[in-house]
Amino acid sequence: MHTFLSRVNAVSAFSLSTLAALTFLCFASTFLVNYTAPVTINAANVVLKNVPEYAVSREKHDLGALRFDTTADLTPLFNWNTKQLFVYLTAEYETPSNKINQVVLWDKIIRRGDSSMVQLKNQHLEYYFWDDGNGLLGHRNVSLYLSWNIIPIAGTLPLWSGTGSYKLSFPSEYTQGRSF
Amino acid sequence: MEPNDNKLYILDGGMEPAFHRGHMLFLTNYEQEPIRVGQIVVFKVDRTRHNIPIVHRVIKVHEKEDGTVKLLTKGDNNNVDDRGLYVNGQAWLNRKDVVDRAQGYVPFIGIVPIIINDYPMFKYGVYSGLGVQYWVKIGGF
Description:
The structure holds two protein chains of two kinds. By secondary structure, chain A is of the alpha+beta class. Helix content of chain A is 15%, strand content 47%. Chain A contains one helix and nine strands. In chain A, the strands form two sheets. In chain A, strands 1, 2, 5 and 6 form a four-stranded antiparallel sheet that branches. Chain A has a four-stranded antiparallel sheet with strand order 4-3-7-9, with no helix packed on it. In chain A, strand 1 and strand 2 form a beta hairpin. The radius of gyration of chain A is 23 Å and the shape is elongated. Chain B is of the alpha+beta class. A six-stranded antiparallel sheet of chain B has the order 1-2-6-3-4-5, with no helix packed on it. Chain B is elongated. The A-B interface holds A 5, 23, 27, 55-57, 83-84, 86, 88, 90, 97-104, 107, 109, 111, 127, 132, 147, 149, 151-157, 159 and B 17-19, 34, 36-40, 57, 59-65, 70, 76, 83, 91-92, 102-107, 133. Chain B: It is a single-pass type II membrane protein. Chain B: It is an enzyme of class 3 (hydrolase). Chain B: It is found in: Endoplasmic reticulum membrane. Chain B: One of its GO terms (biological process) is signal peptide processing.
């Protein structure tokens, strides 16, 4: 261990092994963690239209709109291995033509250090609520729930949902007119 | 970099701030497991004859009783969904377009291959450095 080069070599090899071990520990220590949290969701101002979805085809599809409130305290989800949470609101429902429909209506990235309380009131949808067809008219059982993808510093990328959902109903008649 | 069966390196910024260039993802593709919103998937697009894998998140799922499914994806960091990227002007991805799903993640590992690819001078520098080292070792100095 006399020359400069052999010292650099020894130090870098040791650092790399330590980094590898720490990375593995990050993964192993959070592999089985339960990332659930209670959530409250509410929706109002529910409107339904039937207009052509030009991005997909020339056909008319159901287009829903609503405003929602939600509260969730996601602070317990930020452990030593959490880099970021990708939080999203999903509408899930069944129609005669599709057994399972899932549409993400809103999402948000919460980075480590940002405020981890989700508190929204009368929030607009971020994405259009298009159905793949005309299955939303008079639908009484659309589930709204909040979920999150945990992005670790190193490790698995689990998806978890909050406990607590909202049952949304759509009107039995389309809203005419241009205002939404 | 081409995805292997089970891992790939992130090449673009579409999923920032979660993943950056040089991070590595571990992937699986269990056919029986259904694809649901929120999952991060790998699909290919045909850009000027190169098959580029894109790693984005599923934001819409419409699945029929017989299992046929329509999927829409979007990068977290992008303002628009991926419809414009799909091959042949498809409006949706189907199950066989999805090559893999992201299960785990390690930061920064791939940065060396990416630097070598983007900056060829770096590659030549490394090789010359190795060459000099070898030359010194065999007593050429």
